[in-house]
Write a structure and sequence with these properties.
The chain is an alpha+beta fold. It is built from nine helices and seven strands.
Length: 224
């Protein structure tokens, strides 16, 4: 199946990959997709471990990203009006957070986590109708990225620093990087909220500042 999907075919379905790899018909691939019992998470984990071993050149960088897949309705797990770069704006889509390990030999996706918006995560009836797994609960995108990064490092990924964009540039994720002994290049929003000085802090700052030199008055200067 993977070999057929990687081929440059005009149409991709069970017939065309099967014929391209020499099968007499699509039955074997159809059986794999519809009736075979397999652990997709375990398959992703093993595939990622193999890819890391092959592509890791010692200078790889884990990067937190996300993908928004367009949906025709909100029936799918986590589907709803959300921003998607692929759509170029807000649309009904399903968003997944995934870490990409970028190396000089090529990038690879090493994990994934479905993002549930707050209204979907807390709606038990909607979760049941959509078939949301019990272990998928409310978590922010930076929290999901931090958990995936921790798992990737525990799985053997070697990196000196981590990179991501402003969506994930939170204290929680930066703290996770420091815990994992990773440097980080994390974008922050252009207008971050800062703490203002209280009155006591302001008095302390003023008392610590050197006194200003008084300005001598000029008797020849005329007022406007």
């Amino acid at each position: 199946m993977a070999q057929g999907l990687l081929m440059e075919l005009e149409d991709v379905n069970c017939w065309t990959p099967a014929e391209a790899i020499g099968h007499r018909g699509p039955h074997r691939l159809q059986d794999l997709l519809s009736r075979a019992v397999w652990d997709q998470e375990r398959a992703l984990e093993r595939t990622a471990a193999w890819a890391v071993e092959v592509l890791d050149d010692g200078d790889g960088v884990p990067i937190a990203e996300e993908t928004g897949d367009e949906k025709s309705s909100t029936d799918a797990v986590g589907a709803g009006p959300q921003y998607s770069g692929a759509l170029g704006g807000v649309g009904v889509c399903q968003v997944a957070v995934h870490p990409t390990f970028a190396t000089g030999r090529g990038p690879m996706v090493t994990g994934r986590a479905l993002y549930l918006p707050r209204d979907c995560a807390g709606d038990e009836e909607r979760r049941e109708l959509a078939g949301a797994p019990e272990e998928v609960c409310l978590a922010t995108k930076p929290e999901l990225a931090a958990a995936l990064l921790t798992r990737a490092v525990a799985g053997g990924i070697r990196a000196a620093f981590f990179a991501t964009d402003e969506v994930y540039g939170t204290r929680h994720l930066r703290r996770t990087c420091r815990t994992l002994e990773l440097g980080y290049a994390v974008a922050v929003r252009s207008q971050p909220h800062g703490e203002t000085l209280g009155r006591a802090d302001e008095r302390t700052r003023r008392s610590a500042s050197p006194p200003r030199k008084p300005i001598a008055s000029d008797p020849h200067r005329m007022s406007d």
